[in-house]
Amino acid sequence: MILLLADDNAQQQELAQQLLGVGYYCYAVSSISEAAAFIVSKAEVELLILLTQARLSPELQTLRGLVDIYLPVIVVSERVDEALLDHYHDAGIDSYITLPVNIRLLDNTIRSALRMRQLYHDQVRQCQQLLSFSQNVELEQDLAAKVYNSVLQSNLLQTEAVKADMSPLALFNGDVLLVEKTPDNHLYLLLGDFTGHGLTASVGAIPVADIFYSMARKGFALSDIVQAINLKLHKILPVNMFLAATAVALYPDSKTLSLITCGLPEHFIVNDRDSSYQTVYAKNFPLGITECIDLDIQNFRVDKHHHLFLMTDGVFEAENSQGQVFGALPILDALRQNLNLSIDTLKASLAEHTQGSTQQDDISIVELVCDVENIPWQASHKVQTVQPIKALHWKAGMEFDIDALRQVNPVPVIVNALMEIQGLQHFRQAIFLIVSELFANALDHGVLKLDSNLKKNPDGFMRFYQLREDRLSNWGQGRIGFLFRHQPTEQGGRLTIKVRDSGDGFNWSKHINTLDDNESLSGRGVKLLETLCSSLTYQGKGNRVTAVFDWKK
Predict the structure, then answer these.
(1) C-alpha span between 320 and 248 (Å, rounded)
(2) Domain spanning 2-123 has what CATH number?
């Protein structure tokens, strides 16, 4: 330990010798100015002892500023009066001792001052470490936030059919909103609430978004997407975490709204014509808890006057200063006041309720306008870079028996394979619609022998698809085969699709003359095929069809 004795005093040498005897090495200087010069040249000085009775020089603070860490100061004085004590306090003197010096007392005083110096040094080092840690965490969170937002927000389908307001409690939102359209213009939406909030709660958002967007764009059924998300979360999340979520599908062709509700609070379907409403309650476990989940799907008939409102529990459980939660009735009252400004009205009502209270959870409010007549999301699209396509010669075939048809919807798998082989991403929607319609006709009217006349009235759609599920579950036999052939053309390429089913077929020659008399295929579907395809022909007894799709570079 190196100590510095300051002031020109006859007792310096004697005191220095005494301190040396108890283990300290001392330097003696005659003034604070000399002490400053010494500290500049000898930075290892750890304590300053002033032998003075006078008031301390104002240079003392400057002296302390010359060292990197705290420099303790002890005064040795002949006497101490009230005025000196006040001055010592104002000058930041650590301790004082009076003459004659008791070396043991001085030693204890020095040790105490040095311990304070060490504590100060440790505190400074810890503060520096915390600052460095905080800066690193901030940089990592900024990077994570950019990745998080690029996956969730940049992929979010922007459409006037979906309105949302999300207020996270922390930098990362534990609530997640995903919106996408399928190749056949169905609108999919998922609102989820992970356990907790902040970064911990959002770790599962990226794999959920990846599964949702990729499968929706490939045309998978909503239930298949939810099953895949549940399985993924069950594998990656700890046992104390899960995702309460509701997945929504809006089908313009059947004017149907389907909800898979998994643990979120109740939702409301409000009709803007008369403010009537339906309450939708959760029917399934939250996602990620069990490996397998048997989904209960709720279906509703809707038109452009219906609005679906989804909320996470942060809205319902928001407390005021008295600890009272907001609850469902005030939410419903706010939504029904003005459906044109429903989210704003609800936010104002919630703010009035929670005035003076801090936010306790992530808050998300989503409105889906069920405009199945105009299909506002149909025009929504993202600009994608399309790579030049090189037309190739290839041929591929697949066949599915009744057991496979019960378990798998082959359309997304087939279309995705076609995209991978030939790279026709720019034509994905058209090809998906062609394959989907050909498969639906083969399954519904060929294998399952369903009559499309059931779909001529609004309620018939619901009945048709319920009957379809029942027959598919119990049908004894059947199969559907696909054959794809692709060849280059001068303008681009030609994709020939042949579909054959094991059904009884239909009078295709009569169908050519009058589409309205078709009892096997949906008239609208066939018209769509004829619009998209270069040619559409039937062979045999009508259970074989060939569609030709020509694309241009």
Answers:
(1) 31
(2) 3.40.50.2300
